Recover the amino acids of this structure.
């Protein structure tokens, strides 16, 4: 692999903040190799043949869980799947006890999604296995940010100086925060756009611009990363109705037709069609949403492989 760095600088993938720029480039270059693997007739390699990975999902997940499982299977790892809804967590077992019980079965890596921010960091301080954060509350979702940045790199090349706009529910989104950290490390310019009630008060201190005009933001950006409204995380009403949100902050074909150039449209999923994005945009030539899904497997294969190589 053509890189000056042979290994990741960290034992865990807890958040983008813990990565160096060299780490990010190493992940992308390794993902390039694995993308070639998953597009050939025999899609499996024995890289993790002696490694056992536990997927611990304390929150519902479809895309991230399937993506990790597929990445692990492509690498020939042994997999243990854990769902909190059908476990002893329902009986009052603590997080640490749950994980220690799984580790006693000689698990090498833990992929964890948890509703509490900081849960993966807590585990990393108490157990020896490699921890991969698959989303912790409204904090971070590092592998989503990595696959998003990888997808932009695939479309536009080096991210330095590229203009990326993140639209939607920034306040409740772990994807937004991880994307901001990742994009800024890679030299991109970042702007967030949405209703004032869904933009964190001090987000400008991270080095991003804030805008509330969707068309103006679309005219500014090279890439539009559109996030869904996370109603399940909202304890009060942040806007009058979904219909009104769609009217003033949704991205539709009429807006894209007003641009004088083609931009890249992304969405981490799940898509609320007709709310934050219309079908004619999600399925248009601008969209790389399906490429993001494919790239997610390659990027997660790269992360699993690089963490295993440190052991």
């Amino acid at each position: 692999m053509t890189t000056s760095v042979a290994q990741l600088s960290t034992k865990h993938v807890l958040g983008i903040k813990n990565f160096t720029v060299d780490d990010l480039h190493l992940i992308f270059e390794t993902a390039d190799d694995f993308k070639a693997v998953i597009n050939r007739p025999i899609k499996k390699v024995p890289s993790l043949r002696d490694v056992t990975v536990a997927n611990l999902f304390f929150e519902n997940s479809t895309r991230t869980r399937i993506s990790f499982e597929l990445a692990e299977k492509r690498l020939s790892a042994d997999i243990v799947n854990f769902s909190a809804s059908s476990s002893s967590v329902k009986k009052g077992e603590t997080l640490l006890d749950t994980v220690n019980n799984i580790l006693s079965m000689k698990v090498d890596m833990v992929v964890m999604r948890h509703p509490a921010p900081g849960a993966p960091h807590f585990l990393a301080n108490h157990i020896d296995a490699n921890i991969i954060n698959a989303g912790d509350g409204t904090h971070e979702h590092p592998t989503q940010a990595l696959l998003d940045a990888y997808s932009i790199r695939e479309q536009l090349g080096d991210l330095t100086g590229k203009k990326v706009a993140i639209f939607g529910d920034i306040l409740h989104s772990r994807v937004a925060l991880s994307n901001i950290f990742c994009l800024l490390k890679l030299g991109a310019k970042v702007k967030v756009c949405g209703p004032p009630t869904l933009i964190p008060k001090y987000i400008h201190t991270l080095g991003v611009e804030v805008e509330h005009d969707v068309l103006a933001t679309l005219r500014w950006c090279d890439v539009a990363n559109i996030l869904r409204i996370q109603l399940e995380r909202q304890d009060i009403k942040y806007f009058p109705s979904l219909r009104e949100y769609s009217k003033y902050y949704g991205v539709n074909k009429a807006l894209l037709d007003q641009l004088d150039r083609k931009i890249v449209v992304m969405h981490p999923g799940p898509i609320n069609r007709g709310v934050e994005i219309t079908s004619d945009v999600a399925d248009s030539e601008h969209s790389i949403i399906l490429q993001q899904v494919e790239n997610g497997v390659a990027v997660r294969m790269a992360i699993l492989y690089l963490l295993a190589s440190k052991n």
Q: What stands out?
A: The mean pLDDT is 90. The longest strand covers residues 130-136. Residues 142-288 form a domain with the Rossmann fold fold (CATH 3.40.50.1370). The longest helix spans residues 289-309.
